[in-house]
Amino acid sequence: MLSPPASLTPAGEAGKVMRPRVDIYPSKADLESAAGSEILRIVRLSIRERGVCTLALSGGETPRGLYRRLAALHPGEAPDWSRIHLCFGDERMVPPDDPESNYGMVRHEIISRVPLPAGNVHRIRGERPPEIAAAEYAADLGRTLPLSGERFDLVLLGLGDDGHTASLFPGTDVLREREKSVCAVYVERLSVWRVTVTLPVINRARNVLFLVSGSGKKEIVRKVLASVSPAAEFPAMLVNPSDSPPHWILDSGAGASIQTGTEESGNQ
Ligand code: 6PG
Questions:
Q1: Which atom of ligand 1 is nearest to the CA of 89?
Q2: Which mutation among 31, 156, 164 tests ligand 1's pocket best, with the greatest number of atoms within 8 A of CB?
Q3: Domain range for residue 165?
Q4: 1 occurs within a structural domain
Q5: pTM of the model
Q6: 265 alpha carbon to ligand 1 midpoint, in Å?
């Protein structure tokens, strides 16, 4: 696994949020390798400290290759899957066999390939009515998160081109939710229902990892990381974990518009 290049400090003054850690890697393969190392580090530490690791996975296309890598690890490198509780940050409201299903993607890339006990998989039932699926998932998390001190050990997040993360989209009421752990949300822009964990759940996590790849995301990455204060315009900027700053792992395409610390300090 690659060791990260010098961490970059995003452009912009020290904001009202904890300054995120940003690492940029040359290629998507390098991003996946680095993210895999970081995830394994967190999983092993969690299991060592509490005997279990609770993980919330992101959906979309970016993490697919990373998930495949994690599932293909040799027995000597693989984590103790029996100690991992695999959950989801959000879900599209479709059945598991639908190509859009985040659970369906994770089932194909990880669950079907590793010795994960069925009881350790906590999916959002996309085939159910959204509000019922949200309530059922909240109850499932209510039984699972106490295993790791009422919080996720790691939440994996992606970034949409409008600054959304999980299914926390700009302009949706769920951004203001402070009590519930899981909400159903109708996304006008996409004309779809989603179910998502809420910001309090994400911000209580011990570790939050953003994975962003491709030059198509470079502008939204620049806007989000340059924001000096949490702005609902970019929900990803509302992710401000109490324990430690979010860790952004980018490839060179996604990080192409970020000022590096060296440029700022003139150390070329
Ligand atoms: C989802 C994700 C969502 C995703 C971003 C980026 O269900 O779509 O949870 O937040 O991470 O939209 O998606 P890509 O990785 O496909 O660009």
A1: 9
A2: 164
A3: 6-251
A4: no
A5: 0.91
A6: 34
CA of 138 to the centre of ligand 1 (A): 21
pLDDT, one tens digit per residue, over 25-38 is: 999 999 999 999 99
* CATH for 37: 3.40.50.1360
Q: How many domains does the chain have?
A: 1
Q: Model confidence over 154-204: pLDDT tens digits?
A: 999 999 999 999 999 999 999 999 999 999 999 999 999 999 999 999 999
Most confident of 8-17, 220-229, 254-263: 220-229
Question: Considering only CA atoms, which residue is closest to atom 11 of ligand 1?
Answer: 158
User: Which residue has the least CA distance to atom 2 on ligand 1?
Assistant: 59
Any ligand 1 atom below 6 A from CB of 177: no
Residue 5, pLDDT score: 40
SS3 47: helix
Centroid of ligand 1 to alpha carbon of 160 (angstroms):
6
In a domain, 262, yes or no: no
